[in-house]
Amino acid sequence: MPAPRTTGIGYNGAMKILVMEDDREAADYLEKAFAEAGHTTHVAGDGETGFALADSGDYDVMVVDRMMPRRDGLSVIAALRSRGNTTPVLILSALGEVDDRVTGLRAGGDDYLTKPYAFTELLARVEVLNRRASARESETVYRAGDLELDRLSHTVKRQGQEIVLQPREFRLLEYLMRHAGQVVTRTMLLENVWDYHFDPQTNVIDVHVSRLRGKIEKGFDKPILHTVRGAGYMLKAG
Amino acid sequence: MPAIMKTTAARLSALYFLLFALCAVLLVFYMTSLSARMLTGQTQDTINDEVLGLARAYQRGSLPLLVRVVEQRSRQPGANLYLIADANGQILTGNVQSLEPGVLDTEGWTTRPFSYHRFGEGELERQRDAPSQPGAKASEGEMGHNAIALVLRLPNQMIMLVGRDLGEPERFRAIVRQALMLALGMMGLGGLLIWFFVGRAALKRIDGVSEASRRIMGGDLAGRLPVTGAGDEFDRLSENLNAMLARIAALNEGLKQVSDNIAHDLKTPLTRLRNRAEAVLSGRHKVADYRAALESTIAESDHLIKTFNAILMISRLEAGYSSESLAKVDLAAAVADVVELYEPVAEEAGVAIETAVNGTFIVDGNRELIGQALSNIVDNAIKYSLDAAGGKPAVRVGLERKGGEVLLTVADNGQGIPDAADRARVTERFVRLEKSRSQPGSGLGLSLAKAVMKFHNGRLDLLPGDPGLSVVMGFPERMDH
Fold first, then answer.
1. Contact yes or no for A200 and B341 at CB 8 A
2. CA dist A64 to A27, A99, B64, B222, B438, Å?
3. B127-145 burial string, b = 16+ CB within 10 Å, else e?
4. Same domain, residue pair B337 and B470
5. What is the mean pLDDT of residues B31-38?
6. Could you tell me if B292 and B350 lie in one domain?
7. Does residue B170 share a domain with residue B28?
8. Would you call B215 helix, strand, or coil by DSSP?
9. How confident is the model at residue A141 (pLDDT cuts 50, 70, 90)?
10. Tens of pLDDT along B64-122?
11. Looking at the structure, do residues B363 and B329 belong to the same domain, yes or no?
């Protein structure tokens, strides 16, 4: 693993991203913003071009707008999947109903973000989707510095000392450790740990995280669960 | 005429009339042909009897007796016909003066009725007609009577014909035909009358519906189709169309409200956003000030996006979601999830959350939406229990079955909303009661919860607690429960 740079947010190595977006201005903005975070971006202005690029190029992540001229996003994704293309896809959509999300994920998308969105949210999700970073799914023990989480025995240890967590706190830490070194937003936590896809009105997630932080940091000298201002959280040793 | 035929009633009347007429004609023809065959059979029996009598006379006294009997019977009045002719067909004796040529050529029953003239009667007619119509002989055949007969050849090659006049069956047939014409005429008249009364009544009501719909299309959106109260298909149609119009009106109203809300409640923060950016741009500031201004701009935009999403969500829910998004949802699990989510926040604020849930409470619903509505309500309850008059602020969440409903109650022990009108108003979009203005929030939380409950065919009620406020989410119980 290359040494993480700290200039961008939760940065885990440069990615090659394919953006399928017909709105020129939005696409330019994404290209610029991704470049600032250290990623290379290719832009396709319609579904057919997007399909051709995705089919020939080797991308780490694709960001696909649902509504595009010539060919809609879902059909492009379905066609790519049927050709054996497994590149992670984040679907961008102006449609935000519960059913739309389900349809999008069923068509082969890996994540779904409703417009308008904050770029920090998009960046965090894209970096988490990066297939080179997602190899941890199969690991049974997650380690970050002196923190260790055993997914089979449901135990958490720091510096060899066992820490007792509630089931939800365990799932929260499990998700944070799976994406150690990456920014995880509050909505990502709500989605992946609680399986809810709405914005809670108050800072419910923050309180859960600060409780967890208390348990894994209290009595230890080094902080390990960091707050990334304006974005979310990151679990990182050192 | 084509305009009249454009009405369904006229078309149906005409069609029924034609069908009935066809059936009547077929029936009458069947009846007359059946009775004609019966009458012919009877006539043939009579002729057979006559022939038998003559045959006996021939056996007893040979030809002279036969001729005598024939002459004797010919003189008697009646419908029977007798004729004896020589081998060439020349009439020798009998009561037939003349008959259609060719009748005597073939032996046996005549295949069809033939016309003939009788002695005496034909003379009389001819005498009567002669002075005025000298050429009447030409029409002799047409003026004659019809008869059927049995033609026999005697052993000496002479021809004997025994027949019977068909006057009676002919008259019968004429009567039946007359009756048929009369019946058809009456049916035609009946059809016209039915069309006139039934058709016109139906037409009038349909015209009423058309007129009302034209008025509605013309802009009278509050207008409704006439319902007579007869409960017939026209009323049912009108009622359904009225229900549809009411639904459209409600959706329209919702849409109007959304645009009003967007105009009023999104314009204000947008203006604020703009003014702040403008203020920072004018004049000289430190870099840190610019950064702070940009950050607050982003925060304000995020808030706007959230508000906008909530408005869209509410109107989509109110417009009716597809029922496909409904599945079995355990409300007990939903309560456990949301309470677990809010428990740390509550604890931090010093609010105790108690749950009174026993067993599972399965309803048809959308877990996501129920979770969102419930979290809005629990969020409110935590906030407003903080101003509890006495004792520790607490929120109680309960689940029970009552009167065909599953009731999910979230009660706080805060100040509550004492005024019933305020309680009704607070679920409207962007309505925030005075004392809650200081609290963070968009004023959409309860509206969203209400829309979610409406989507679930349920209800959202705000009841005065003792103390505080009870928010009741009433879900219809599942049918198979």
1. yes
2. 11, 18, 123, 45, 41
3. eeeeeeeeeeeeeeeeebb
4. yes
5. 80
6. no
7. yes
8. helix
9. confident
10. 788 877 888 887 777 788 888 887 777 878 887 777 777 777 778 877 778 787 776 65
11. yes
Q: Which residues of A touch B322 (CB under 8 A)?
A: 99
Rounded Cα distance, A137 and A150, in Å:
13
Q: Tell me the chain B residues in contact with residue A118 when contact means C-beta distances shorter than 8 Å.
A: 298, 302
Does residue B433 share a domain with residue B328?
yes
Q: Which of B310, B308, B315 is nearest to B251 (CA)?
A: B315
Which residues of chain B does A208 touch, with a Cβ-Cβ cutoff of 8 Å?
Answer: 341, 344
Per the CB < 8 A criterion, the answer to whether B125 and B132 are in contact is: no
pLDDT single digits (tens) A48-86: 888 888 888 788 899 999 888 888 888 999 999 898 888
Between B323 and A235, the more confident residue is: A235
Q: Are B34 and B155 found together in one domain? A: yes
Q: Who among B325, B340, B441 is closest to A99 (CB)?
A: B325
The sign of the dihedral angle between the CA atoms of B78, B80, B85, B90 is positive
Q: How large is the ipTM?
A: 0.82
Among chain A residues, the shortest Cα distance to B299 is held by: A230
Cβ neighbors of A21 (< 8 A, separation 6 or more) are A27, A30, A43, A44, A45, A63, A65, A68, A92
Shared domain for B39 and B174, answered yes or no, is yes
Domain count, chain B: 3
Whether the CB of B441 is below 8 Å from some CB of chain A: the reply is yes
Instruction: Classify burial at B451, counting beta carbons within 10 Å of its beta carbon; exposed 0-12, middle 13-18, buried 19 or more.
Output: buried
Among B residues 134-173, those touching chain A with beta carbons less than 8 Å apart: none
A168 touches chain B (CB under 8 A): yes
Give the single-character DSSP code of B438.
T
Range of the domain at B6: 2-183
All domains of chain A in start order, with CATH: 16-132 (3.40.50.2300), 138-235 (1.10.10.10)
Q: Cβ B348–A207 below 8 Å, yes or no?
A: yes
Q: Does B381 share its domain with B470?
A: yes
- Judge whether B427 and B447 are in contact, CB under 8 Å: yes
Residues 61..120 of A with a Cβ closer than 8 Å to B: which? 96-99, 102, 114, 116, 118
b/e map of A183-197 (b: 16 or more CB within 10 Å)? Answer: bbbbbbbbbbbbebb
Helix count and strand count (H, E) for chain B: 13, 14
Binary contact (B341, A230; C-beta < 8 A): no
The whole-number pLDDT of residue A96 equals 59
